[in-house]
Amino acid sequence: MTSARQPQRPAGRGRAPVRQLPLKLALFVLLCALPVYGSASLWVRQGMMIPALALTGMSLLAFVLYRRDKRQAGIGGQRTPENVLHTLELLGGWPGALLAQQVFRHKTRKVSFQVVFWLIVAVHQALWVDWLFLGKRLWQMVPAQVHSLITSAQSAGVLAVC
């Protein structure tokens, strides 16, 4: 007798727990420390709420879109374009995206996607280190370089302005 192949579990039901949870939680907390501290500091000290609102709002939106994209992938529906996901990450939603990647196990194996994602995280970390500890030297270059960076990213197909 041959055994029949077991059907795959439906997405969202009986999902296995996140692998290496303590390590991943520690990494998540560590990566979020600078943006949370920085945005809270800006809010409390200068009344500037935009960074905190962007971090929270874009993270929630990214989490929801990752969930939607994972479900659509499972049923063969219309997917969320990767450049939309990356745009949300770039606008401050990378913490929600990182959480969604682990919770839904989505976009974790595609190397090209992960390279862009981790570059976005690195840019955010560098800008927060600069803002909080290095006298905003990098931020002084941002206005002059933003246009060429966006143009380069668009021509490479990495970024689309929504």
From TrEMBL:
Cite the entry's keywords alphabetically. Membrane, Transmembrane, Transmembrane helix
UniProt keyword Transmembrane, yes or no: yes
A Pfam family: DUF1294
- The portions of this protein that span the membrane are 21-42, 48-66, 115-134
Q: Does Transmembrane count among this protein's keywords?
A: yes
Record protein name field: DUF1294 domain-containing protein
